[in-house]
Amino acid sequence: MSAQPVATTASLPGLRPRVRRALGDPTPLACTVAKAAMEAVLGGPAIDPYVRWLDEATFAHVARQRSLAIRAGRTLTGPVGVRRARASRVSRTAAEVSVVIEHAGRCRAAALRLEEVAGRWQVTELLLG
User: Fold this and answer.
1) Which of 41, 59, 96, 124 could form a Cys-Cys staple with 54, CB 3.0–4.6 A?
2) What φ, ψ does residue 83 adopt, rounded to 5°?
3) Are residues 27 and 97 in contact, defined by beta-carbon separation less than 8 angstroms?
4) How would you write the chain as a 3-class SS string?
5) Which residues share a beta bridge with 18?
6) Integer CA distances (angstroms), 108 to 16, 25, 117, 118, 123, in order
7) Number of domains in the chain
8) What is the mean pLDDT of the chain?
C-alpha cells in the first residue's frame, strides 16, 4: 500500500486558503456582559446565559459575588443601564473596555479585558466598581 498525499486547500481547485480575520468591535459584547454582571452582583438574575462569553475564572467570580449578594438579602431594584463605553485594542487578539453603568441614580465602573478564543471574543478579566 502506498501512502496517498493529503489534500490541502492549495491543491484543491476553486478553494482559497482560509484567512483569519480580525474580530469586530468588542464594545457591544462588553456592554452586555458588564450590565449582566452588575445585575447579578446586585442580586438580580444569574449570569448563566453568558457563560459562553466568560472564561471559567471570571464566571466563577461573578457567580460567587451573586451568591453572596443573595445570601445578604440583596435584590435588584430598578433598571441597570450602560451610560458610556470606551474600547481600546491592545493587540490584534485583545481589547480592553471601560464601561460606565448607571443604577438607582448612581454610576459605577466596569473594566473588561476581552481576548480572542476560538474565533470569538471572550471576557478574561472583569472588574466591577
Assistant:
1) 59
2) -90, -40
3) yes
4) CCCCCCCCCCCCCCCCCCCCCCCCCCHHHHHHHHHHHHHHHCCCCCCHHHHHHECHHHHHHHHHHHHHHHHCCCCCCCCEEEEEEEEEEEECCEEEEEEEEEECCEEEEEEEEEEEECCEEEEEEEEEC
5) none
6) 48, 23, 28, 31, 19
7) 1
8) 89
Give the domain CATH number at 38: 3.10.450.100
Identity of the amino acid at 76: L
Q: What is the pTM of this model?
A: 0.82
Measure the CA–CA gap between 34 and 83, rounded to whole angstroms.
Answer: 12
* 80 and 41 Cβ atoms separated by less than 8 Å: no
Phi/psi of residue 92, each to 5°?
A: -65, -25
Give the domain extent around 39.
27-128
CA atoms of 84 and 75, how far apart (whole Å)? 24
| Intervals of the chain under pLDDT 70 | 1-20
Specify the pLDDT at position 23. 85
Evaluate whether residue 10 is within a structural domain: no
Cell numbers describing residue 40 = 447579578
Asked whether residue 57 is domain-assigned, the answer is yes
